[in-house]
Predict the structure.
Amino acid sequence: MTLKVSVSGVRGIVGESLDAESLVRWASAFGQWLPEGPVVVARDSRPSGPMVAAAVTAGLTSTGHEVIDGGMLTTPTTEMLVQESDAVGGVIVTASHNPVEWNALKLLRGDGLFLDAQEIDAVTQLQSADFRLHKKAVEVGKVHTRDDGETMHLDGIEALRYVDVDAIRAAGLHVVVDCVEGAGGGIMPRMLERLGVKTDTLYCGCTGMFPRDPEPRADHLQELADKVKSTGADLGLAVDPDVDRLALVDKGGVLLSEELTLAIATDHVLAQSKGPVVVNLSTTLAMDAVAERHGVPFHRAPVGEANVVAKMLAEKAVIGGEGNGGVILPALHAGRDAVLGAALVLAAVAARGSLGACLEVLPPAFMVKDKITLDESIDHPGKWREAATRMGEDGDWDESDGIRYALTDRWVHLRRSNTEPVLRIIAEAPSVDAARGIVDDVRAALGR
């Protein structure tokens, strides 16, 4: 399998497409592309993380860059560390929600934002060249460590006007948090403790050996739901290994679609600050309704954090993100952040009295998310377009990222994944059965 290169980073299976040789080549290419100055390197908890981080550090120091080693940090923490320091860039060693055999390099600019498609292309060309510019012995970079990343991140969250720490503490909340043995095992319980929340933990050991599918989706979180119910907790929080996505479980162990995380956070923020909202093309229609209820402009962008962030900055969005549980609040930093998302949800729960009360003001989200292996026989947008029209006629088309076809109360989105060699098929409709039917019809039209 070849490396998967996109705005979501450079991903591969360790020992196959991603090895020490390829890692040094990519890291030195990135170092050659960056201006002079320090570069932050951090990683999630995967067993391959130390090897990958060491190779990245070697590539960067060989191009003359000082490396600031953040150790094990979440993706949003690393983004903030770059943003709030004099770093000219950053590398986050994480494959996010991919299984443990995968790892990846998420590349950051000096402003803490991911490289866009053109910038990724420029680094790709450098890494595929016959040679790269390495420094001589006395010119190679040095390595320094920083251990204050988590504290800086948590201080920033607590200082936000949208996080009423006193109200959260007064609410006496009880939470179960599932960190899937990822990088959130330290910072998530620490954040909850600082907010005065009684906490039960699940898989917060940071071992990197994921006990379940690491993608925080309702169908992967039954154990968390059971623990929320058995402990009588007010809600459950689940994050992915690098902690940029958040899913929720309501009191009594009721599993919620990860699409509702952003809707709850957005409704809470817009109640205090009006302004534009930006989400991606695959995000629930509940977000349209939230924006309409608050009377603010609403925009959609292609899938991928870099694409959403670019649109958010252009529109001066107050909040936005991706419906997979990724909350972005530029007032803190312009990146998906599950630590922040959890704090906003807790603030919303404290303000309204319960997670259920937060849900009452939102329309339901009935979505089905599927994926099929992408091969030459179906890797053709013309076929996707033909398959989508099975949903009905006179709909609206958006072809900025694959094919999105929408009627008034339903839509389907077909696109190549940024992170896996698959075709993603996502549909939303007034019921789960209707959404499932749309996906089934598309699969049938594609012969899958």
In short: The CA atoms of residues 64 and 140 lie 4 Å apart.
